[in-house]
Amino acid sequence: MTDLYVYYKVRDADTAPLRERVHALQRELAATHGVAPQLKRRPAAQDGLQTWMEVYPNVGAGFADALEQACARADIAPLLAGPRHNEVFTDLP
Length: 93
Known about the structure:
Distance between the termini: 12 Å
């Protein structure tokens, strides 16, 4: 199993609607894939932008594709200030 981390920039003005959409897609993924998603952000904004991170621990193969499809259904792209970046980490033995 691996952990998936997704980070991106958000304009201060778009945080409320984006938070609602991300929480909705995370509830969907929790129900359909049994994951325990987290949503985090850096403590301070810079130049009117916040950095957010979605964390999906212990995901299986194909989860990144399911996440991408959920993001498309939630229509979050217009609320982002740039691209989403995916990082995958595994536990050390």
